[in-house]
Amino acid sequence: MTSYLAEYAWTSGHLARNVRIDVADGVITAVEVDHRRHDSLNKLELSGGTPAGTTILPGLVLPGFANAHSHAFHRALRGRTHDGGGSFWTWRDLMYDVAGRLDPDSYRELARAVFAEMALAGITAVGEFHYLHHGPDGVPYADPNAMGHALIEAAAEAGIRITLLDTLYLTSTVDGKPLEGVQRRFGDGDLDGWSDRVAGLRSRAHTKIGAALHSVRAVPAGAMTTFADRTAGLPVHVHLSEQRAENEQTLQAYGCTPAELLERHGVWRENTAAVHATHLTDRDIEILGGHHVCFCPTTERDLADGIGPARRLADAGAILSLGSDSHAVIDPLEELRGLEMNDRLASEQRGRFSPARLIAAATNHSAIGWFDAGEIAVGQRADLVCVRLDSVRTAGADPAQAVLAATAADVTHVIADGRLIVEDGRHTTIDVPRALTESIAAVTA
Question: Taking the domains of the chain in order of start, what are their residue ranges?
Fold first, then answer.
């Protein structure tokens, strides 16, 4: 057993002081608040001495963050898509260019670096929305899940858990045009082909296998109900109403919104999560009440998608989570702050979400199927993130509100499943800046 002492820790939905956290076999076995007086803990830290088997955790200790929506290979686009302004659709063309260059080896190297960057930001589990399945010409690799296995191995090397949301992608438009060009890498021909391939994937200690319906653009309505039945009980994600054009095309083709179309075909189930949910009607918000909804504020602003109705969805009962999506930024503290600030801009009111609600969204591991993570509590996975309270960003902040001041640069230590993966702001096994530089150069040169 290892015991940790934290001057400040976020537990039971609020800030506690002088917290002892006991961990055995990667699981929290005890949490004791007010373990010792504040001045006593300070003296212990200053003297450099700790009781046998005890480690002092500096700053504010939070549960591990969950990145509920990721496309790992999009990281190669950061800082490369802004010539001439552009749009979502010109950005997508550049994304397809990178997608066409990757193979299992280069994808593993890139994803390993990206997942290690996530670890540096305090992320201990990722939902990887995976649709880059086959070779550049659409022909499967000898191992038809070679690209998925590359992602699973990359996460293991970075020290974080992964939910592989293997994605059904069959058409290029709402009206059913076939996949062409690099999109052929994404498709399995039909639903049965997708199901047969996914049957070869296996969960591991750090891996869950989930599913994704890419969008109403990519899956014909006739396949939706069977997809929902075949994936019952799994974490299932779907891109929803990210762009107004998607809504307009769905209304023209089906006479309803994307959320309504998915409702008609039974896709909205207990473990289904809507990603983005930016352009919603009142009826859409009613449909999504009680379901998971993942916002990706830094990507949504980078792509000029718009601001989704986060507060209204929360009021309707939606369970919010956060993702870094295209990785224009990898910083869960910036994502949670973006959730609040975007809603302030849209509503012209402050205080849309309390710090507790923002932390709950950033640590929502249930959205990707890890129901034993996301809290500093007995029986939960030992995922602990230390955030500095003495940096130029956080100095003087109320520790209970420090998440509204801190950034990923303030993360000093990260423990995932009881294992130290970040120490003093550095990954314990990977030179992350070098790994990013080399892996991105390999697919953009």
Answer: 2-62+383-416, 65-368
292 is catalytic: no
Q: 13: left (phi > 0), else alpha (psi -120 to 50), else beta? A: left
End-to-end CA separation in angstroms for the chain = 48
State the chain's maximal CA–CA distance in angstroms. Answer: 70
As its CATH architecture, domain 2-62+383-416 has Roll (2.30)
Residue 134 catalytic? no
- Nearest alpha carbon to residue 125 among 323, 340, 410: 323
Q: Tell me the pLDDT of the chain (445 aa) as tens digits.
A: 999 999 999 999 999 999 999 999 999 999 999 865 444 444 444 444 556 669 999 999 999 999 999 999 999 999 998 887 878 888 888 999 999 999 999 999 999 999 999 999 999 999 999 999 999 999 999 999 999 999 999 999 999 999 999 999 999 999 999 999 999 999 999 999 999 999 999 999 999 999 999 999 999 999 999 999 999 999 999 999 999 999 999 999 999 999 999 999 999 999 999 999 999 999 999 999 999 999 999 999 999 999 999 999 999 999 999 999 999 999 999 999 999 999 999 999 999 999 999 999 999 999 999 999 999 999 999 999 999 999 999 999 999 999 999 999 999 999 999 999 999 999 999 999 999 999 999 999 8
Same fold, 2-62+383-416 and 65-368: no
What is the CATH topology of the domain spanning 65-368? Answer: TIM Barrel (3.20.20)
CB-based contact 110:443 (threshold 8 Å): yes
Q: Which of 284, 302, 325, 410 is catalytic?
A: 325
Q: Which two tokens stand for residue 190?
A: 């039909």
Catalytic residue among 237, 276, 279, 365: 276
Residues 6+ away with beta carbon under 8 Å from 195: 230
Residue 308 to residue 63: CA distance in whole angstroms: 26
Burial of 202 (0-12, 13-18, 19+ CB in 10 A): exposed
